[in-house]
């Protein structure tokens, strides 16, 4: 039977960066489904869920490495044909294999978590919350300089993020920088916030025409286009595009 990690080594909700060091322990007493039951149930949908703690492996066999351990009800999406007792699925943007005894039908019809955008760093002490507003409970408080993984999901001034095997929401006011390697430099990722009233210009120059004045707190999508200290941006609400001075985007 497939072996799993103990509950003390839960490695769900985050990608491999946060799952590094996950260990595989001996199996506990688990109740699985029969292959016949799974065949009928899984054929009905491309969206699955885990039914217990199970290893998410690099290949279709017990001798393959463990990417991470998935807890019960982790969302899975079919990405290819099954092989023996293993089904090929994606979870949080990673592709791997899960033993069919721990896979059941239905995860609500959604394809796991939004894609990861890379990493950002907290700029001050900030609450990591269970939902996208200050009305949600605090999961934990992150110190200044904490590197977190951010996902392509926004609501209001909050972005979905992950830290220490948990997923939550943090105000964009306290996130800065980013890059695919987590280095905190290079192309900004996700939405950026205007930190002070800022002109949106027709060209990357202080003498260029002003399209509008963006008040502090305006959210924009940054592009890779940089010129003379200006970055080409699109307002999140889709109303305008133009050049903004990069030092006032965070």
Can you give me a brief rundown of this structure?
The chain is 5% helix and 42% strand. The chain is elongated.
Protein model, in words:
The protein is mainly beta and 250 residues long. It has three domains: 7-105, SH3 Domains (SH3 type barrels, Roll), CATH 2.30.30; 116-179, SH3 Domains (SH3 type barrels, Roll), CATH 2.30.30; 192-248, SH3 type barrels (Roll). The chain has helices at 16-19, 35-42, and strands spanning 47-50, 54-57, 66-70, 75-78, 86-91, 94-99, 103-105, 116-122, 126-129, 138-142, 147-155, 158-163, 166-171, 175-179, 192-193, 198-201, 210-214, 219-227, 230-235, 241-245. The strands form six sheets. A five-stranded antiparallel β-sheet has the order 6-5-4-1-7. A five-stranded antiparallel β-sheet has the order 13-12-11-8-14, with no helix packed on it. Strands 15-18-19-20 form a four-stranded antiparallel β-sheet, with no helix packed on it. Strand 19 (230-235) and strand 20 form a beta hairpin. The protein is elongated, with a radius of gyration of 22 Å.
Beta-strand content: 35-45%
Helix content: under 10%
Rounded average pLDDT: 74
Total number of strands: 20
CATH architecture term of the largest domain: Roll
Number of domains: 3
Quote the distance from N terminus to C terminus. Answer: 50 Å
Order of helices and strands: HHEEEEEEEEEEEEEEEEEEEE
Specify the CATH homologous superfamily of the largest domain: SH3 Domains
Total helix count? 2
Low-confidence stretches: 3-44, 179-186
Strand order of the largest sheet: 6-5-4-1-7
Shape: elongated
Instruction: Give the class from helix and strand content and strand pairing.
Output: mainly beta
């Amino acid at each position: 039977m497939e072996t799993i990690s103990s509950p003390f080594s839960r490695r769900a909700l985050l990608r491999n960066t946060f799952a590094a060091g996950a260990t595989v322990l001996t199996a506990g007493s688990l109740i699985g489904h029969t292959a016949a039951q799974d065949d009928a149930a899984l054929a009905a949908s491309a969206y699955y869920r885990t039914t217990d703690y199970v290893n998410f492996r690099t290949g279709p066999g017990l001798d393959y490495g463990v990417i991470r351990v998935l807890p019960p009800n982790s969302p899975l999406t079919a990405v290819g044909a099954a092989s023996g007792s293993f089904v090929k699925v994606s979870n949080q943007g990673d592709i791997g294999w899960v033993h069919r005894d721990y896979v059941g039908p239905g995860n609500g019809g959604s394809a796991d978590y939004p894609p990861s955008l890379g990493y950002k760093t907290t700029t001050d002490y900030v609450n990591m919350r269970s939902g996208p507003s200050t009305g949600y409970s605090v999961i934990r408080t992150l110190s200044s300089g904490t590197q977190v993984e951010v996902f392509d999901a926004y609501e209001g001034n909050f972005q979905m993020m992950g830290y220490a095997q948990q997923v939550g929401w943090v105000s964009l006011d306290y996130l800065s920088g980013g890059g695919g390697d987590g280095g905190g430099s290079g192309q900004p990722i996700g939405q950026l916030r205007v930190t002070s009233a800022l002109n949106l210009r027709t060209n990357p120059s202080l003498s260029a025409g002003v399209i509008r004045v963006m008040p502090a707190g305006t959210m924009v999508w940054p592009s890779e286009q940089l010129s003379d200290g200006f970055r080409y941006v699109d307002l999140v609400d889709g109303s305008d595009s133009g050049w903004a001075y990069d030092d006032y985007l965070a």
